[in-house]
Specification:
Blueprint: E1 7-13, E2 26-32, E3 38-39, E4 42-43, E5 53-54, E6 60-61, E7 64-67, E8 77-81, E9 93-98, E10 108-111, E11 114-117, E12 124-134, E13 148-154, E14 161-167, E15 175-183, E16 188-196, E17 202-215, E18 223-225, E19 231-233, E20 243-245, E21 252-254, E22 263-272, E23 278-288
Parallel strand pairs: 19-23
Antiparallel strand pairs: 1-2, 3-4, 5-8, 6-7, 7-10, 8-9, 9-17, 10-16, 11-16, 12-15, 12-17, 13-14, 13-16, 18-20, 21-22, 22-23
């Protein structure tokens, strides 16, 4: 997909199992629109795409929609404007004038939904960062952790729903906000970002959004126990043949074998990958006494 050139692109997915059986081919169509910019799953993250202007209730301007039941109330407005911007983040910023409606979801700015594939095995971690400033003199008066709320919604085939984080702004001062959300593993995702202002009283600017989606590695290393001689005669010597990890991680062994005493012993092998996932495997060693007494 050439995001520098507008057009329609096809991405084809193929997979085969260990026996060589091929899955049915699946194709995704990606449309790149002229002038669109992205940061992770956020479309038009710095509000530079298209011309500035007012965003009417339930209308969309440059991939940002004004929603919520109270977004058409007197004293409530939203726009992409050029006056109150964060230095270094282009010439435009989002501006929302809101009143405290009691519910943050009553006034919200919603970004265009962005679909993408998951691996169906590992969860994803979504990080959203942005600059914000408000004239609300008490932006934590309703909720101590912040009257503003950030919401990421998934409407993919697994429909994982909403993840939310409170946002505590600083009156009349640009503040850099970083929030992280985790979604369960899924075959695909359709994420959209919501800024929710329904508990704020004042004028709030948002600028310089960045987002990222990271696959969280939850797969433990697979340890293979190397074949060895694991049934030994009492009084003889046993040598550990060791074990290996599929990711090349260092494998450590714990446990002892006392060849002077007949019995069953366990050696446990452990390996931990860079993500902190730990795999284990066990070797069973049997010490036997099959030597008959010698009578003199």
């Amino acid at each position: 997909v050439d995001t520098a050139t507008a057009g329609s692109y096809s991405v084809t997915y193929d997979v085969s199992d260990a026996a060589g059986n091929a899955a049915t081919q699946v194709t995704r169509t990606v449309t790149v629109e002229d002038g669109q910019t992205y940061s992770g799953f956020v479309v038009n993250p710095s509000f530079e795409d298209g011309s500035p202007g007012t965003i009417a209730q339930y209308a969309t301007l440059n991939d940002w929609k004004l929603g919520g039941d109270n977004s058409g109330d007197t004293g409530v407005s939203a726009s992409i404007q050029t006056t109150n911007i964060h230095a270094g983040d282009g010439s435009n910023a989002l501006e929302v004038t809101s009143v405290d409606t009691g519910g943050e979801w009553n006034i919200r700015l919603i970004n265009t939904t962005y679909p993408f594939a998951g691996d169906g095995i590992n969860p994803i971690e979504v990080t959203v960062e942005f600059w914000a400033k408000t004239t609300d003199v008490a932006p934590g008066s309703e909720v101590a952790s912040g009257d503003m709320r950030l919401l990421v919604k998934d409407t993919g085939s697994s429909n994982l729903g909403d993840k939310t984080q409170r946002v505590l702004l600083t009156t009349d001062t640009w503040t850099y906000i970083t929030k992280t959300f985790t979604f369960d593993a899924a075959a695909d995702y359709s994420l959209s970002l919501f800024f929710e202002f329904g508990k704020l009283d004042g004028v709030t600017q948002i600028d310089g959004i960045t987002s990222s989606v990271t696959v969280v590695d939850t797969t433990a290393p697979v340890i293979t126990v190397t074949a060895g001689t694991d049934t030994v005669e009492q009084g003889s010597t046993w040598t550990d043949a060791g074990a290996t990890s599929d990711g090349g991680e260092t494998v450590t062994a714990s446990g002892t074998v006392d060849t002077s005493v007949a019995g069953t012993y366990s050696i446990t092998y452990t390996a931990t990958d860079a993500a902190g996932n730990t795999g284990t495997a066990t070797r069973t060693v049997t010490v036997v006494d099959t030597t008959a007494p010698v009578i003199t």
